[in-house]
Design a protein that fits this description.
The complex is a heterodimer of chains A (308) and B (206). With 308 residues, chain A is an all-alpha fold. Chain A has one domain: Formate dehydrogenase/DMSO reductase domain (Formate dehydrogenase/DMSO reductase fold, Up-down Bundle), CATH 1.20.1630. Helices cover 69% and strands 2% of the residues of chain A. The mean pLDDT of chain A is 96. Chain B is of the alpha+beta class. Chain B contains five helices and eleven strands. In chain B, the strands form five sheets. In chain B, strands 10-1-11 form a three-stranded mixed sheet, covered by helices on one side. Chain B has a two-stranded antiparallel sheet with strand order 2-3. In chain B, a hairpin with a 7-residue loop joins β2 and β3. Classes of the chains: A mainly alpha (308), B alpha+beta (206). At the A-B interface, α3, α7, β1 and α8 of A face β3, β4, β5, α2 and β8 of B. β1 of chain A pairs antiparallel with β4 of chain B.
């Protein structure tokens, strides 16, 4: 597939926003935020999570040919995971904003709002991942590992961000968050590597034989039917070399997972270290999502193997 | 239950692309608006087509055969592109089984095209909505046309009658008979989409 940056930014930003909320709410649940001054920290952190999700939502509009009709996308929630995401994302933004606001105003009941936001947040991870995992013939995506990856990568990046945020606003929370961040990053790395190994061993279920229904073992395309481009050749081919793909894979494994985890595990979590970890992980995860899309090999590509 | 579909005879398709051009002509002239070409005279032209004819070479030289292979939307009986559509713009008509896109509801999210294993859908560059073969729904249902012309434009244009059109659920229809007697098959049966369009395999030459 040709990766679309609108969708890359959407999924990376909301994943991190959701993870940031979960990390902050875990701090609240763990009783790490006893006094009122610290509650303001949760309010600001919650606002940051909302902001990330809003930016993600904004990015998603750039994927649409007719963004002015985006509201229609909420109608088919009974059958479409995309429609479900379109409903659950604004819902999460609203409940998370309510949680942040309640902390900001010092209102009671934040625990209950937080529990509700957590449920919506988990539902959002499921919706986002199922958009891809439910397409059974995109074999690289059609796996429970896609769900695990979206969840763990979101939690890891959100917690790293929470640690960096705490470094600026609430130093007392830094040690716990930094430790959680490198643990989650390693866990996410393990799951992502598991999916890389799975995908490396995939056997495509479709072949040129099943695509055109001719059983002969030797079939070559001589013409795809046109010499210019088409939607089918632009949308489903990334057009990069194997070397480029392999380089991007190494980059995302190192920058998105290994280096941030090493930084957080081995160095004193100073502000500079935390900011560096967040920055490295952000660019690494953008590359990770790019690779996620590029690696998916659409069976329609069988029909577009030779111009003429 | 009617299921309209095309049956394509690979024995007689000569790869002339008449179906491609007549499809383009009919569907760019209709009430749904043009099927546009973007940058048609530039270095990197791109255009929307509902139907393509591809060419494959089967076998090792000199034992080779050239197979011309027309490909359009297969109007699956279990179309994976329909349930994924977030707006309901992509739908399958109950009365005749045609898979259509409501251009007024489509938001151009492209998700349905990802969900189609055959690559049958194309975004129109000008209108930015998803387009696909309609089986010339505006032709085949037009009672002002003489009955013999109520067929898709590609079927009308084919000089070798490689394209048959009809109801594949009616066992008495010519298409059902062709499928039954000549082993009409589905493309990529492994995904369970149950394409309504079938292809008639090459017959052994004497």
């Amino acid at each position: 597939m040709q990766p679309a940056f609108s969708v890359i930014f959407l999924t990376v930003l909301i994943g991190a926003g959701q993870g940031l909320f979960l990390a902050l709410f875990a701090c609240e649940l763990g009783g790490l935020v006893p006094d009122n001054a610290e509650r303001l920290v949760l309010a600001k952190g919650g606002a940051l999570a909302v902001l990330l999700c809003l930016f993600g939502l904004l990015a998603s509009f750039f994927h649409l040919g007719r963004p002015e009709r985006a509201w229609r996308a909420a109608t088919m929630w009974r059958t479409s995971w995309l429609s479900r995401e379109v409903i659950v994302l604004p819902l999460f933004i609203a409940v998370c904003a309510g949680w942040a606001l309640a902390h900001g105003l010092g209102a009671p009941g934040t625990l209950w709002i937080g529990v509700l936001a957590t449920l919506v947040c988990l539902a959002l991870y499921v919706c986002t991942a199922m958009i891809y995992a439910s397409l059974k013939f995109l074999q690289e995506w059609a796996s429970p590992l896609t769900l695990v990856n979206y969840l763990l990568i979101g939690c890891a990046s959100g917690t790293t961000l929470a640690a960096a945020f705490a470094g600026l606003a609430a130093p007392a929370l830094v040690p716990g968050l930094a430790t959680s961040a490198w643990l989650l990053t390693l866990l996410a790395l393990a799951a992502r590597v598991a999916s890389l190994i799975r995908n490396a061993g995939l056997k495509p279920r479709s072949s040129l034989q099943s695509a055109i229904g001719v059983k002969h073992p030797v079939i070559r395309q001589r013409s795809q039917g046109f010499m210019g481009g088409s939607y089918a050749t632009r949308e489903f081919f990334h057009g990069r070399t194997r070397l480029a793909l392999r380089s991007i894979r190494w980059f995302f494994v190192l920058s998105g997972f290994v280096l941030p985890a090493l930084l957080l595990a081995c160095l004193e979590p100073s502000r500079a270290v935390l900011m560096l970890a967040v920055t490295l992980q952000f660019f690494g995860l953008i590359a990770e999502r790019w690779f996620f899309f590029a690696q998916a090999n659409h069976p329609q590509n069988l029909y577009y193997q030779a111009v003429s | 239950m009617t299921q309209l579909a095309l049956v394509i005879d690979l024995n007689v398709c000569v790869g002339c692309h008449a179906c491609v051009t007549s499809c383009k002509q009919w569907n760019t002239s209709g009430s749904a608006g043009p099927l546009t070409d973007d940058n048609p005279y530039g270095a990197d032209p791109i255009g929307s087509f509902f139907n393509r004819v591809q060419t494959f070479e089967v076998g090792e030289y000199p034992e080779t055969q050239t197979v011309h292979f027309p490909k359009s939307c297969l109007h699956c009986e279990d179309p994976p592109c329909v349930p994924v559509c977030p707006t309901g713009a992509s739908y399958k008509r109950k009365e005749d089984g045609i898979v259509l896109v409501d251009y007024d509801k489509c938001i151009g999210c492209k998700y349905c095209s990802w969900a189609c294993p055959y690559g049958a859908r194309e975004i129109d560059e000008a209108s930015q909505v998803m387009t696909k073969c309609t089986l010339c729904v505006d032709r085949i249902t037009d009672t002002k046309l003489p009955e013999s012309e109520r067929k898709p434009a590609c079927v009308m244009a084919c000089p070798t009658s490689a394209r048959l059109f009809g109801d594949v659920h009616d066992p008495e229809s010519a298409v059902s008979e062709a499928i039954r007697e000549r082993g009409g098959y589905e493309l990529m049966p492994e995904w369970g989409t149950r394409p309504a369009n079938r292809y008639l395999p090459r017959r052994q030459a004497d």
